Each structure stands twice: as structure tokens, then as C-alpha cells.
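This section describes the prediction task in plain terms. A model, or a person checking by hand, is given the sequence of a single protein chain and must write out its three-dimensional structure as a string of C-alpha cells. No templates, partner chains or ligands are provided. The sample shown here is typical of the held-out split.
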Amino acid sequence: MDASVTSTIVVLAGYVMITLVKYFKPSSKNAIAVLVSALTLTALSGVVLYAALQVLPASVGYLQWLDNTLPIRLIFIWVMIILAGINGWLFFFIKEHQQNELREKETESLMREAELSGLRQQFQPHFIFNSLNSISALAGTNPNLARKMIEQLSDFLRGTVKKESNLLVPLRDEFNHLQLYLDIEKVRFGHRLNADVRADETALEMKLPALLLQPVLENAIKFGLYDTVGVVVIRIKARTDNGYLIVEVENPFDPSSASPKAGTGFGLNSIQRRLSLLFYRNDLLTTRQNENTFITSIKVPQR
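The expected answer:
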């Protein structure tokens, strides 16, 4: 009976101490207050324990033994209260730390999504303005072609709106969407623009961020057609290599009138930033020149 009553009071005192630690977190500023609270709680527990044990049916020898062991009981209760407080503080500290980490990750994720969305929205205006200008020019000379271009632009924008910036899609779907963009650009440039797209079946099933290639192709058309004359072929090649999907876009350019540099322009810089946000790497987009050919290479990890 003595052990049962003592254990119950120790447990209750420990629970009270844990509750105090939960709402009044220990620190260097309130360390003395915590110790005073522990001593006060120990004294109250000792009084309650002694009173409870006094009313138990017992012999004179037990009552004498109770008086002799009271100091030891108080020390034991004080130590247990301190240990309960330390364990409670550690538990709530770790829990709070985990909650803070979770909030930081959620905030970082929201910021990444917002930046990705912002980058994606900045891709479209330049292309839309060019398309609308072309439609305006065709409306008077070739209404049927202007109507066709409006339908193509509508299909392209509809597919763009449905996709999220951080969504991974198969390369096959990305190529289908890219074809809509090429069809619109072919209306603008006519026979001068040709595309050679090559990819094996394995590469077509691999995934990459949605709408990633359109800015690359727009960059290739800009350097390939704006500064050159005659027919231009834009080559798009896709292959796999050690768990990566590698897509290369090649376009000719005239070194005398165009001087593309690695990472030049909003389009390529934005793609590099987008890949960095999604995969936490800065080496997934590279550019190089091979005589009169400008090559943009993108590596997409398959996770």
C-alpha cells in the first residue's frame, strides 16, 4: 500500500511538472523559477504523501519507519519531478522543432511553386504577341489561314493552361504540345521553318517538366530564323543515358550577326532556374556552339 500510494503521487507530481514545462518553457531566464516550482511541488507532494500514509492501518514500527524515511522520500520525489520536467522539455522541444521544419518546408514549397508559376507565365506573352501580330497581318490577305492560326493558338493555350509548372509529363505528350507551337510558327515563317524531331520509344516514355521545351524551341527559332535567310532546319533529339532523359535542340546561326552565349536570354535562364527549383541542381542545362550550329542540351533526372 505504501508503494502504491507513493507511486501514484509521484506520477501525478510528474504530470503537473510536465504540464508546467509545456506552457512555461524552461530557459536561462526562468531557470530559478523552474527550480522553485520543482521544490514547491516536491513539498506539496511530501505533505500529501505523509498525510495519506498516516491514515493507512499500520503498526507503530511502520509509523516510526515512515518518519525516518521521509527525507529520502522527498529527495526521491524531487529527483523524479526534475527528470519528468527534463523529459517533458525535450519532448516538446523536439516536437516544436519538427513543426518549425515542416512549416519551413511548406513555406519553401509554396515559394517554389509561386516562382515556378511566375516563370511559366512570363514565357507566354512574347509568343502570344507575335502570334496575334501574325494573325492581324493574315486577316486581310488570307482570312482562312488567319482563322486556322487562331484555332491552333487556342489549342496551344488550352493545353498550356491545363498543365502545372511542376507537373512531370511523358516526352511524348510534350512533343505533341510542341507540335502545336511549331504549326503556329510555320504559319508565320512558311516554308523557311522545318523541324526534325527524333526520339526512340524509351525516351518518349520518360518524363520531364511540362512545357519545358517550348521556350528552348522559341530561342532556337529566334536565333535560327531572325538572323539568317533561306530554309532553316531546327533539330530536336532525345535519348536516354544512365537514368537521364537528354534532349538537345540544334539551330543554325550566323556568327556575324548573332552571338548566342551560354544562358543568354530570359528563356534559357528561366529554364535553368526552373530545373534548379525542381531538381536542386544547376548543371542540367548547357549550351555550346559547333561551328555555325548552336546546341542547347537539357538533362532531366528520372526520379
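For orientation: The radius of gyration is 36 Å.
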